[in-house]
Write a structure and sequence with these properties.
Helix content is 27%, strand content 38%. By secondary structure, the protein is α+β, with helices and mostly antiparallel strands.
Length: 600
């Protein structure tokens, strides 16, 4: 009977043992530890203390840290892993601390409750020594917030070739409350052509962990950069003024202040880090003579709307360059039109988009062509060459040869008269319809009085010869003058600049700020490149200043020019600006006019 009772109680015993085993396993799965990144610190130095929890827990109680300045925390970070079919997770609480005086201090034990179990960490001793620098003592001041609000600059690549696109991103990291953010200075990106990326305020915020500390992160500025010259270029600093709300560690105030903590607002200026980008020239091997500088990945096409027409009938040639890269810097392709064709300036359609991944889209060139005479003509194959970043070589794409048949039409623009002969019997003699033979006395001029061989005749012959000699001499000088490409570009610089400024004015009237500032920027830099004979890739503010000084341009004009360029750059890239667009336009036109008067 007793044996039967033992057997009956066996399932209960098994369940009890399993319960104890499960309880032991649950207890063993929870781990709780404390650590610091350094045990010896100087006065004012920041250090981190971390409390790591492995497994599930109900509550966490940090130790008292009154002897330290608590700059941020607790900052939470989690991690998960899967090993041999088993998953595990951990949670870490991190605090950023500093000490105001030297000595030995103890971070007491932290407490963790998991079910009915209580876990504690081992106390940690921190040794604080004197700072060897006056600056370190200053860092102990609670007004120094540089460790928990700062700006960083990131670039998608640190090595590139001329014309290759690079993404520059500026991020603000913070662990305190911020307000009144105001961009003080935007990056100038000297040596780059840059395009601003419009940021979505709902998608440019998040959190990141740096050196074990979790920060709130906001992307403040992002640009696509295209280096215009080789050498060491810099994505320079972004500067922001803001107000930081930090905890006031001074005792005093009301009971509520002591219970809830006192806070104070501090005006602070944040400067971002900078990034150096090493830019190498495009390879000379395989580079065509007429290479226009296209860098990226592109496709090319050319189409003609009709090939059989009548003289004076218009046809359209359309060229499309599609892809990603420095599309906006690609100029018109070189096309050899027949001399009998009247060709109008190309209509350029820029259908590009700027995003976080770079510049992509297409650029179209449309030509209106009018053949003036009949015959068979052809437009030779049109070529487009770009440097492929991925393949690291030049790629040339060609169109087909366009053969055009032009029927002879009304080349003079006038209709041909048709005449019909009337029957002779229909002619009536009315009044003077038929003239009779003149019976009046005929006057005859003597031989010696004829114009041919007279003094006036020889005078006109001599004058014609002198005029012909003068004309040939002037034509020879003009040909020599026009053969100097530098002088030609210099003479045309003002016309090109005026044309771009007129385009900018249209964008201003249409309230398209982005295109307005682009055209102003192109107008000034294009004018200076042609007028001063400096390649666009070498156009820096220093080169412009030195060249204008060498041409004896007044310092006030140079200052106005550089200020206009800086204002234009800031207006193009700053999210908010109070700069008058009318003022930028007026200053641009004024400075070009003054330089045109002085530089011949």
């Amino acid at each position: 009977m007793r044996k039967a009772n033992h057997i009956a109680n066996l399932p209960i015993l098994i369940l009890f043992v399993l319960f104890l085993g499960a309880f032991g396993i649950a207890k063993a799965q929870v781990k709780f530890s404390a650590s610091v990144n350094k045990n010896t610190v100087k006065i004012g130095d920041r250090f981190q203390v971390s409390f790591k929890i492995s497994g599930s827990a109900d509550s966490f109680e940090p130790p008292a840290m009154n002897q330290f300045n608590v700059h941020s925390g607790p900052n939470q970070s989690t991690s998960r892993s899967w090993v041999n079919g088993r998953s595990s997770s951990s949670l870490t609480y991190t605090y950023l601390l500093s000490a105001n005086k030297e000595g030995k201090f103890v971070i007491g034990e932290a407490k963790l409750i998991a079910g009915k179990e209580v876990f504690t960490t081992q106390p940690i001793e921190i040794k604080v020594v004197k700072s060897t620098s006056q600056n370190k003592e200053t860092n102990a001041n609670s007004n120094d917030v540089s460790n928990y609000v700062f700006l960083k600059c990131y670039t998608s690549k640190n090595n590139a070739v001329v014309g290759e696109q690079i993404i520059a991103t500026y991020k603000l990291y913070y662990n305190v409350n911020l307000s009144n953010l105001n961009i003080k200075a935007v990056p100038s990106f000297n040596g780059f052509w840059s395009e601003l990326v419009e940021l979505d305020p709902n998608k440019n915020r998040g959190t990141e962990v740096l050196n074990g500390v979790t920060y709130n992160v906001a992307t403040i500025h992002k640009s696509v950069l295209f280096p215009q010259r080789s050498g060491d270029l810099v994505a320079d600093e972004l500067i922001i003024d803001l107000i930081v709300q930090i905890k006031d560690n001074n005792r005093g105030g009301s009971v509520f202040d002591r219970l809830l903590g006192r806070y104070k607002n501090i005006e602070h200026q944040v400067k971002s880090t900078t990034r150096k980008i090493v830019v190498t020239p495009l390879p000379s091997s395989g580079k065509p003579i007429d290479f226009s500088g296209a860098v990226g990945k592109f496709s090319f096409s050319a189409t003609l709307d009709k090939t059989n027409i009548t003289a004076n009938e218009a046809i359209n040639l359309k060229i499309v360059i599609n892809g990603s890269g420095n599309l906006q810097l690609i100029g018109e392709p070189k096309i050899n039109f027949p001399s009998d064709f009247e060709v109008y300036d190309a209509k350029v359609n820029d259908r590009t988009a700027v995003s976080s991944s770079g510049v992509a889209g297409k650029k179209e060139f449309e030509y209106l062509i009018i053949p003036r005479h009949g015959g068979d003509f052809e437009i030779p194959s049109i070529e487009f060459t770009y440097y492929d970043i991925n393949k690291k070589k030049y790629i040339t794409q060609k169109s087909k040869i366009f053969k055009i048949h032009v029927e002879k039409g009304d080349e003079n623009g006038a209709s041909v008269s048709q005449f019909s002969r009337k029957n002779q019997s229909e002619i009536n003699v009315i009044g003077n319809d038929i003239r009779y033979i003149n019976t009046t006395e005929l006057k005859v001029t003597e031989r010696g009085n004829l114009f041919f061989g007279s003094g006036l005749f020889y005078t006109l012959i001599a004058t014609s010869i002198v005029l012909l000699i003068g004309f040939l001499s002037i034509q020879k000088k003009l040909a020599a003058y026009n053969s100097n490409s530098v002088l030609v570009k210099g003479r045309k610089a003002n016309k090109v600049a005026i044309k771009r400024l007129s385009v900018a004015q249209k964008h201003l009237q249409n309230r398209d700020e982005k295109l307005f500032y682009e055209e102003i920027f192109k107008a000034i830099y294009g004018y200076l490149s042609d007028k001063l004979n400096i390649d666009v890739a070498q156009l820096s503010k220093d080169n412009i200043k030195q060249s204008l000084l060498a041409n004896k341009v007044n310092a006030d004009i140079i200052t106005l020019l550089l200020e206009t360029l800086s204002s234009c750059e800031m207006a193009r890239f700053a999210p908010v600006t109070n700069i008058s667009k009318q003022e930028i336009y007026a200053n641009s036109a004024d400075v070009i006019s003054k330089i045109e008067e002085l530089v011949k």
